[in-house]
Amino acid sequence: MKLTPLVLGLATASLLGCVDEKLGTTQGETFEEYLAQVQREPGTGRYVLDWDIVVSTEAQVYEVWKQSQSGQALSIYSVGGQDIKWSPAMQKALTYCVSNNFGARKAQVVAAFEAATKQGWELYGDVKFIYDATQDANCNANNNAVVFDVSPITGAQYLARAFFPDSPRIERNVMIDSSAFDPAQTGNITFTNIMIHELGHALGFRHEHIARPNQQTPGCVEDNAYRTLEGYDALSTMHYPQCGSPNNTLALSLKDQTGIALVYGAARVPVAPVASVTSPADGATVPLSFDVVANIVDDDITTVELYIDDVLDQTLTTGPYTFQVDTTPGLHNLEVVATDSGGLTGSQPFSVNARDGNGGGGGNGDGDGDGNGNGNGTGDGTGGESADITGGCSTSSGGTGLGMLLLGLVSLVTRRRRS
Predict the structure, then answer these.
(1) Among residues 201, 253, 242, which one has the least CA distance to residue 94?
(2) For 329-357, how does the pLDDT look when each residue is reduced to its tens digit (9 = 90+)?
(3) In angstroms, rounded to a whole number, what is the distance separating the alpha carbons of residues 362 and 45?
(4) pTM of the model
(5) SS3 124
(6) Residues 58/84, Cβ–Cβ less than 8 Å
(7) β-pairing, 284-287 with 345-355?
(8) What element of type H or E holds 292?
(9) CB 303 within 8 A of CB 338
């Protein structure tokens, strides 16, 4: 994206310098004339078309020029009658990383992309941008773990530039010049809104001013490889202010909001995850070590957490959602909480009674016999109950009496009853 000096009402906003050359084309212009006017990106040497779209080869520039001679019209990128957009599978899996080379500005870039996606395009179209911070340390054009990278550049002739859905991975970058962070350079257009504009290109949208009736403003006439979705929209985020929309802030217009739905389908109504616990059952008695098995229904889960007595115990980010729990004896309140990428949550509380698995009760007894057939046995049980057995009929002349045997049986029955 590039801005040039404008008169906004009675005030003059000083933006990035004037564009002396014409970066688009009109029918009848030769390819050599067109090529001579195309910018080259510092560092990469790639060709920058229409201020903020990049291609790598002269052959690709030629294809853009050839489309400009065909007399087609409209405002999503369209070649040969085919819209250039993401497939149904890819439109909800647009992963990206943000380079650590932004340094102190990285947090601002991350926040702007979150706002431009979750509070921007994703609110109105069935698309999803997914930030993968694990790739930030190696966030460049060679990283195939993400769909595109967000990287800084210095000395570019633009604030920022993007790509189209049919760009090869090496060109799928959002490049941001340091000037994009300076309100004096952007005419006080917010950094977030500039990112909304660039992500519009990443979704396949062309500059809206190319569809402006009788567009003749120098530097604003581009090729004709587009088709109009809803007619000309002077307020579109894809419309340069200096090309016929002097008060444009690059916020999403009403037609932007309905236009993305025409291309990618309307945004789905956010639905919270559904969490259920399949094991153990609510109120079950469990050993001190046991598994909690949860079933989560949602297609974009980010975390599943287990809380024990209101304290976070474990977090899982991928299924199967099975938690191995070690706890103390007694009653415990547990809760499984699932959170999706939109911040919506679903939970399932339950309780268990944890026991150590050892039964209670014990016993001891003593007995004596007189050797004459008369025996006396006494016993006492410990463990919450007691039992006394007395009787005669010794079976031995001086050893263990019947009372000891009976006491043992009673103690055993007592233990079984209590376990």
Answers:
(1) 201
(2) 999 999 999 999 878 999 999 999 999 87
(3) 87
(4) 0.58
(5) coil
(6) no
(7) parallel
(8) strand 289-297
(9) yes
